[in-house]
Structures are given as structure tokens and as C-alpha cells.
Amino acid sequence: MMKKILLVVSALFVILLLGYMAFNEKQLMGEPQNNPVASIKEFVKQSSSHAENIQNKTLSNKDVYQRISGLTNKSDFQQSLLDDQATHNRYPEHNSQFSNPKFDPLSKRYALDERVSKKEGTHETLTVWSDKKFYQQGDDIQIFAQIKDGAEQAISGDFSAKLIYEESQLLDEYILTDEDSDKISELFLSAQNIESKQYKSGIYKLLIHSKTLNISDSVVFSISSPDALFTGEYRDSLNDDGDLLVEAQVDVAKEGRFYFQASLYSSPVDAIGSSQHSAELGTGQHWVPLSFDGLMIKDSGEKGPYLLQQISLAKVTMPIQRGPLLQPGYYTQAYDLDQLATASN
Amino acid sequence: MLRLKTSFTSLALAGSLLAMSGQSVADNCYIMVHGHGLQGDQNILNGEQPAREYWRDAEFDDYQGSDFIEQLLSGNDNYGLVGYDSTDESEYPYWHDNTAGEVARQIIEIKKGNGDGYTHDESVDTQCAASDDFYVVSHSQGAAEMMYISGNAVSGSPYYNRAYAQMDTTNSNQAGLSSSNEVVVDFDSAMDSIVAIFTIGGAITGTEGADRVCDGNWLDGIINAAFLGKTCGGVRTMQTNDVYTVRNYIGTTLGAPVYTFGGYKTFPGYSSASSAFLGGEDDGYINLASQMSCEGSATRNLYSDLSTYKTFFGVAYGSPKFTCDDDHKGTPRTYNMASVHTDHDAERNGGLNSPSYTSIDDGRNCGAGENVAGRINACN
Fold first, then answer.
1. Cα–Cα distance between B147 and A120 in angstroms, integer?
2. Could you tell me if residue A274 is inside a domain?
3. Last residue in a domain, options A176, A204, A224
């Protein structure tokens, strides 16, 4: 008798559970879209206006990390997700921690774009590069080209080049020369030359052809007018949350949206982390706030003063108009680690 | 092949376990973002759903009949299709409102649980629910789209919640040096609750194919026709020059972690075609350095830098040695999944079932021996 009751109760439990799950699933998933409209844009518009009345925010995915965390056997990927979350959540999202200067995001951003092309079916190569990726109006421009034989030995070569603006307008044609016979051919475009030809801001391509190897590659660079300059004035303080606030003064010539990046070190070789900030700015002078999380600094174990190692600005247009990468050499006050935040804000 | 979603027995077992643990279990939702050359803004075109067909179309006979999504799903997994206009004719760059903007808006809608606007052909409901765990699966240009969106989903990033509309499609193909072409798109919401973004054969630092088109020395017409346009306007921002690449247009972190899969197999029957124009290991179309988002130039000398071969009388042979670990990425918060012996076509249709692979630094080994769809499934 007892067994029968248990059996009936168990069966009822399973039926109720399945019914509950099916009901819940239907509620959450909603009706499938059986009547597709011709344009997906139209669907999104309709769906969006309908959905706004139902739910403004998707459900939090915190549970997924708790669930993965509770797994006995995690895959490499699942473990990586947990590690990433721990790293990502430790500091505010405008900060990135790094301890090795070679991982400084500003250095990576401005790193030279050295390109190597291999001639088909051989190991002969053409390498091209410029002395910068991002030029300002008024900068000189230097472009380099080198070819190597199959044994990776540099050899002399003849190079011709075409300068093209925004992939559409042929501006000029050049011959690269190797005046110092170092087997690196060069093209020098002086600021005066560029100014006299009234080159506009935008993206430029120098399409280089190696007559010797009969292959081509291009160097692409931008010439910018970011409409803002750092004045060279900096100041620093600790905010109420125990974070270090470094402010850089900028002089804006023309209003717009601007993007700022800076990296903080305790010495020229001891990196701590970076900060980024973007904002709409009107004409005139402004103090740009670059916040460095107290916990991020504390984690480095380095007490102040701290060095503003690198800083950059860009005007946010398309394409982006980057200013030069600067090393201001600015040191903050000698803050003690105890003054800094112990938890991320 | 139809998929049986859940058996009575497994449901009952799951229910009992749930009752015991008191925890809820969400399903996986894979949000699928296609690559270049698709009229994906149309739900239905010539009687087909382009955004769905992308994941089972095949340029090569060897892969006919295979279906990435079919291989990706198991258990209660769901998926949402994203469709946007990535055709050459439209010439939309990855930062455009009709590409990145459209992708982000559709992701937001899928996450609300309202369906993706497409008819799914599985026997059970595979539309995503708002309570699902969301993963993005992106291929080729789709990877660049996701990098732009996630890299500008964080406050303080340069293009935070901003896409652009083109000013002049005929001449400069640029938004122009003014903010008047900005379009506000909620990238932040799009990336909220995305657990991870998978990129497969991603054109993260461009493709040399686009270089060839724009530099005027394109040689491989058939591959060009399959994956790329014939005019520079359509692929201009997919060139490998750093000034064009998406890493130049994002901030110092991403709104969701990115996990990269790379392919290094030449196209079937065209073994010479891909090696003819790519300078190292590639999937027939995109260099491995670009697919894995390695720092440095996508065209840097892969022969000596990314790959290490043994040689016999000057002829390279053997497996490449991969040296682009998590610390040497060109984009932040980006991690290696795997480098798989698959080509750009098979990457998106799952046409190679058990491809070989190379061991790579910091690679995630779950699903080793399976293709990309199988690996994602196994890793979850």
C-alpha cells in the first residue's frame, strides 16, 4: 500500500514539474516568429516597439558564472570565462592593468605598421613601413621600402610609388631612393611640400611597387587635424573613493567629441595601468579627467609619486583623427598606498 | 536532420535535480553573425532566408549538405540569426549604422526573447528566450563587426554607442570628418549579458584579399567572386593596413570577451590559389594573424614570425608553430580558442567534420578533434 502511494505521489510530482517547466519555458520564450516580414529592419522596428512595453532589460547573466563556478569538471573555455570575469570585474572598465611596458595599450596603438609581402612561390620579400601611422598637419613624412632575397639578405632594388587620397584620388607619383646605400629606399615628403599641395585630413595610401621583384604593397597613414592640443598643464588628486585622478588641460579649437588615453607608471620601466575617457568638448580650455583605480595602483605595490608615462588624444570622427603620442614626464604627488582604495568602485 | 530537443526521461531527471539543487538552468542561445557579401538585411530573398543559408551554403562541392548550426546545437540549445547588408554593392564599412548598428539592434531584440524574425526549421522551438545564456558566433567580417561593437560598448571608449552613416557613397565612402553623421546605437545594451563572442576566420585585422582588390593586382578571380567584391569600395575597411583595422577604432577593453578560432587550410582544389596571395598560414582567404587578432601587422612575415617550418632543400614542410598567445593580441580581452585545419568556406558551413589542428599557446583544448561548431558545443 505504502509503495503504491509513493508511486502515485512520485508520478504526480514529475507531471507537475514537467507542466511547470513547459509553462515557464513558453512564457519566457514567447511565440516563435512565424510570419517573417520582408525586411529584417522592419522586424526589429516592430519587435522593438512591442518589446519596450514588456521588458526593457535582458535578465542578468550572473547566474551563468555561478553555475560554471559550481561545476566539478570545467572545460578550458569555462575556466577561462571565470578568469576573464575576475580580471574584468576587478577594476572599473575605463582602466586596464598591465605591469610590463611592452603591453602598454598606447604603445601598441601607435606601434609602426611594418608590412612584409612574399613573392609568389619564393621566399623573396618586400617590406614597407613609415616612420609613423598617424601624422598631423605640419609633420614631415618618411616612407621606407626594402627587399630581401630568398636567404633573407637585403638587396638593392628599384621602387616606384603612387600617393592616393582616400582610395580614390591619385595625388602624385614618386621614385624611392637609397642615398646612403643601406639597401633601404626612402621617400621623404616635407611638411612644406604637403602644405603647398594642400593635402587634406584623411587617409593616404602610398602604393609601392618593387620593379626588382615585381610585387607591390602599400603603406597607409592618416593626416589629422584633431582640433585640440594638450597645453602641458597637469594636476592630480585623490578623490573621495581613493582613486587617483590625473587631469590634463586641453585647448580645443573646434568643438567635437574627443577620446583620451593615458598610462600610469611608477617609474619609466614600472607600469601600473591605463585609463581612457571620451567626451564632447566645446571650444576653449578644459581639464580632462583620467581616473586610475586605487585598487589597481595598490595591486602594483608601488607607492607614489606616479608617472604619467604616455598620453594621447583624438578627435572622434570617421576616420579617427589622432594627435601625437606624448610622454609628458609628469609626476604626481607622493601618495602612500594606504591612501588608495582597497576595493574597486 | 531534425533535432529531438529533450526526452521525457532526461526532463524528469533534470527536474528532479533542479528540485534538489534549487537552482535554475538556462539554455544556451547562440547569436549568429554572418560575414561579407550577404544581402542579410532581407529576411527572405528568392525564397530563402539569407542569414540562415549562410551557415549551410557551400562554395565548394566537398561541403555541400553540411550545416554549421545543426552541428552547433545540442540539448536545449537555441539560436538567433542576425542579418545585415554586407554586400559589395552597398559598400558599408564595419562601423556603419547598417552593419554594426544593425547587428547591435538585432542582438538586443534577440536577447529580449522576441525571436529573431526568421523561421527556424528545427522540429522544436529553437528561438532564444530572455533567460538564456547568450553567446555570439561570428564569421569573417562578422568578427570585425563584433570587435567594433564590443570595443565601443564600454563607457570611455572612442565610439561609445556610436555608428556612422555614410556621407558620400560615390566618392569618399567615408562618414566624413564631422559628427553630423553619428548614429546613436546602444552597443552597451547589446553586449550586456553576452557571455562570450566566438570569432571564426575573423577578418579582425583585415584580409590581404581586400588589399589585392584595392591595390589593383587581384589574381584569384574565383575566390574573389566567392567571398569578396571586385571593387575597392566594398572592402576598403577590410584591408590589412592598421589605419583601417577595427583595433584602431575601439577602446582599451571590450564589452564581452572574444575567443578566436583560426583556420589554416587551403580551399579544396585551389591549393595554389590561396598561397598565391597570402604570406603565410591562412584559411585560403584570411591570414591566421588576422583571424587570431595577433598584435603587429596581419601581413608581417608569418614565415619566420608566426610559423616555424622545417625545410628540406629549401622546401617548407611540417606543421606551423603558433606563437600568438593571449598576451600578444592586437585587441584587448581576446583569447585563443584553437587553430584548426579548415578553410574559410568550411568554417561557416561545418563542411569538415574532424579536422586536424595544431597546438597553440593558450589554446582552449575542449572539443579537440572536432570542427569549430563541435568545439563550441563541447566547450560549453
1. 32
2. yes
3. A224
Instruction: Identify whether residues A259 and A313 lie together within a single domain.
Output: yes
pTM: 0.87
User: So where are chain B's domains?
Assistant: 24-379
Number of domains in chain A: 2
Which residue in the set B196, B217, B252 is minimally distant from A216, CB to CB?
Answer: B217
Pairwise CA distance, residues A168 & A162, whole Å: 12
Do both A170 and A251 map to the same domain? Answer: no
For residues A242 and A297, what is the distance between their CA atoms, to the nearest angstrom? 10
Question: What's the average model confidence in pLDDT over B155-166?
Answer: 93
Rounded CA separation B68/B345 (Å): 11
- Pick the range with the lowest mean pLDDT from A228-237, B12-21, B229-238, B252-261: B12-21
Q: Which residues of B touch A96 (CB under 8 A)?
A: 252-253, 332
In a domain, A275, yes or no: yes
B315 touches chain A (CB under 8 A): no
Interface of A with B in 49-108 (CB under 8 A): 50-51, 54-55, 57-61, 63-64, 67, 75-78, 80-81, 84, 88, 93-94, 96, 103, 105, 108
Q: Pairing between strand B78-82 and B28-33?
A: parallel
Whether A216 and A242 map to the same domain: the answer is: no
CB atoms within 10 A of CB A192: 10
**Strand blocks (E) in chain A:** 95-97, 115-118, 125-130, 134-136, 141-148, 154-155, 159-165, 169-176, 185-189, 202-210, 215-224, 228-238, 244-252, 256-267, 270-281, 284-292, 307-315, 321-322, 330-331
For the stretch B333-354, pLDDT in tens is 999 999 899 999 999 999 999 9
Residue contact B379–A93, C-beta within 8 A:
no
Banded model confidence at residue B218, pLDDT cuts 50, 70, 90: very low
What is the residue range of A335's domain?
A: 101-108+226-339
Last residue of a domain, one of A224, A253, A272: A224
Which three cell numbers, joined as nine digits, stand for B347? 568554417
Write down the ipTM of this complex. 0.87
Contact status, residue A205 vs residue A174, Cβ threshold 8 Å: no
CA B157 to chain CA centroid, Å, is 22
Interface of B with A in 280-309 (CB under 8 A): 280, 295-297, 299-301, 303-304
Cell matching residue A186: 626612402
Same-domain pairing of A203 and A231: no
Strands A185-189, A141-148: pairing kind: antiparallel
Does residue A77 sit within a domain? Answer: no
The percent of chain A in helix, strand and coil, each rounded to the nearest 5, is 25, 40, 35
Partner residue opposite B112 with nearest CB, options A18, A58, A81: A58
The answer to whether position A126 is within a domain reads: yes
Q: How many CB atoms lie within 10 A of CB B314?
A: 8
- A336: which residues sit within 8 A by CB, 6+ positions away? A303, A304
Given a cut of 50, whether residue B302 has pLDDT beyond it is no
For A70-84, write each residue's pLDDT tens digit.
Answer: 999 999 999 999 999
CATH among 2.20.25, 3.40.50, 2.60.120, 3.15.10 for B24-379: 3.40.50
Distance from CA of B190 to the nearest CA of A (A): 10
A222 part of contact set with chain B, CB < 8 Å: yes
Residue A190 vs residues A174, A194, A196, A221, B322: alpha-carbon distances, Å = 14, 6, 10, 15, 41
- What percent of chain A is modeled with pLDDT above 70? 83
What CATH code is carried by the domain that includes residue A208?
Answer: 2.60.40.1930
Residues 131-190 of A with CB under 8 A from B: 133-134, 150, 152, 166-168
User: Which of B84, B176, B242 is opposite residue A133, by nearest beta carbon?
Assistant: B242
